[in-house]
Amino acid sequence: MVSIQTSSIEKKDKLSVYNLNYPIIKSDNKKNIINNINHRIYEDIIAFKSAIEDIAYCKNNCLSCISTDYYITYNNNGIISIPIEFSQLDGLYNISYINSYNYDINLEKEINIKDIFNSETDYMEIITKKIDNKIKELSRELSIDKYIMVLDYLKDIIFCDNPTFYISTDSIVICFSSYELDPTISDLSTFKISFKEDKSYLSKYIIEKITDS
Q: What CA–CA distances, in Å, run from 160 to 118, 189, 190?
């Protein structure tokens, strides 16, 4: 288990409100991978800040209100998972996206979605089923126009080879970003793949490192 400290970039004036919180990972071991993760996180934070500043510069007298928040969803047995939510207040809506940082510190490697499942499992088929179930739930709540929009969007997502995900104690969570959808649709954000219910699909690596740890 590694330790986590919070660092912040804050700014407040007439046209800008920034509250960017991000993690700094601390460990006496495996310093190269730790430094690489911290550098990647910091670069993503700065890139987000710079992109919003560029947009604000092009829009005179435009209020920039941005924030980042992170969550430590797993930190055990040398594996760490940290999703960071990048948010921008745009009018009445909070537009956000998620980057996730999933690493095996001991092996000094990033964990990809294909590492989660065994080689005989078509993991995109599993994700597709989860999405289909969510679409059926939404179909009872959305207007026909929004339903069709969501359906078209999710069909494109299904073919993404490495969707954004994070690891929790009981599941893998596939996450999507609100800025890619109609901002009034708040329910469509995460899909869980349960370690307990879907254990037969998991790789030996995940079973040994997470579910049996």
A: 19, 16, 15
SS3 content of the chain, % helix, strand, coil (to 5): 35, 35, 30
Structure tokens at 74: 């797993």
Q: What is the C-alpha to C-alpha distance for residues 16 and 59, in angstroms, rounded to an integer?
A: 13
Per-residue pLDDT for 2 more than 50?
Answer: yes
**Are 79 and 8 within 8 A, CB to CB?**
no
Whole-structure pTM value: 0.85
For the ranges 34-48, 87-101, 180-194, 198-212, the lowest mean pLDDT is seen at 180-194
pLDDT at 187: 47
Q: What number of helices (H) and strands (E) belong to the chain?
A: 5, 10
Domain boundary among 70, 96, 111: 111
- Going by C-alpha positions, the residue among 1, 213, 30, 200 that lies closest to residue 116 is 200
Angle separating helix axes 144-158 and 123-139, nearest 10 degrees: 170
Q: Which of 111, 129, 156 is the last residue of a domain?
A: 111
Q: Which amino acid is at 129?
A: K
- What's the CA gap between 118 and 204, in Å, rounded? 7
The residue written with tokens 């690596």 in the block is 205
One-letter amino acid at 159 equals F
- Among the listed residues 161, 19, 175, the one whose alpha carbon sits nearest the alpha carbon of residue 101: 175
DSSP secondary structure string, 52-73? HHHHHHHSTT--EEEEEEE---
Q: Could you tell me the residue range of the domain that residue 12 belongs to? A: 1-111
